[in-house]
């Protein structure tokens, strides 16, 4: 197993509930809200607040989290650098989905307008 395989497995086994509070802290520190965060998560995954809370209570891994997601058809429009990688060039599908989410959270924290984050016209 090479380093990237190990990295992909580590991401797959991460518990979403352990990362979610970090997302909240990141966006709130920059003056954005948990509701806005939940809105971008719903746009990407299709999870409403109730379903999101269920997955958090179940301690769903990112693998399980994205297995249950209905990825937004416009998610391919998410491009740019995250953690030193271009999200559109990430080969592992699960890692790419997690990095899509990371990218959206970064955009929210950086003050980007919600229409731009949600790839609306």
Fold and architecture overview:
Helix content is 60%, strand content 3%. By secondary structure, the chain is mainly alpha-helical. It has one domain (3-117): Helicase, Ruva Protein, domain 3, CATH 1.10.8.290. The model has no long low-confidence stretch (mean pLDDT 94). This is DUF2200 domain-containing protein. Pfam families: DUF2200 (PF09966).
CATH class: Mainly Alpha
The dominant shape is globular
Output the structural class. mainly alpha
Tally of DSSP helical segments? 7
Strand content: under 5%
End-to-end Cα distance? 43 Å
Compute the number of strand runs.
Answer: 2
Would you identify the CATH H-level superfamily? uncharacterized protein sp1917 domain
Overall number of domains: 1
Mean pLDDT level: 94
Main-sheet strand order equals: 1-2
Largest sheet: 2 strands, antiparallel
Q: Could you spell the SSE succession in H and E letters? A: HHHHHEEHH
| CATH architectural designation | Orthogonal Bundle
- Which fold name fills CATH's third level, the topology? Helicase, Ruva Protein, domain 3
Unreliable sequence segments: none
Q: What is the CA-based Rg, rounded? A: 14 Å
Helix content: 55-70%
Task: Supply the key terms.
121 residues; mainly alpha; two-stranded antiparallel sheet; 7 helices; globular; UCP033199; SP1917_dom_sf; DUF2200 domain-containing protein
Spell out the blueprint of helices and strands.
Elements: H1 3-13, H2 16-29, H3 34-45, H4 49-57, H5 62-67, E1 81-82, E2 85-86, H6 93-109, H7 114-117
Antiparallel strand pairs: 1-2
Helix pairs in contact: 2-6, 3-6
Organism: Flavobacterium gilvum
Protein name: DUF2200 domain-containing protein
């Amino acid at each position: 197993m090479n380093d990237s395989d190990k990295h992909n497995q580590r991401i797959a086994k991460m518990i979403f509930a352990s990362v979610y509070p970090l997302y909240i802290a990141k966006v709130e520190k920059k003056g954005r809200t948990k509701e806005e965060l939940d809105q971008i998560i719903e746009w990407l995954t299709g999870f409403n607040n109730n379903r999101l809370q269920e997955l958090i209570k179940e301690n769903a891994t990112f693998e399980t989290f994205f297995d249950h997601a209905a990825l937004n058809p416009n998610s391919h429009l998410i491009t740019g650098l995250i953690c030193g990688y271009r999200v559109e060039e990430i080969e592992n599908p699960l890692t790419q989905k997690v990095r899509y989410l990371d990218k959206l959270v970064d955009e929210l924290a950086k003050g980007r307008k919600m229409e731009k984050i949600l790839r609306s016209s």
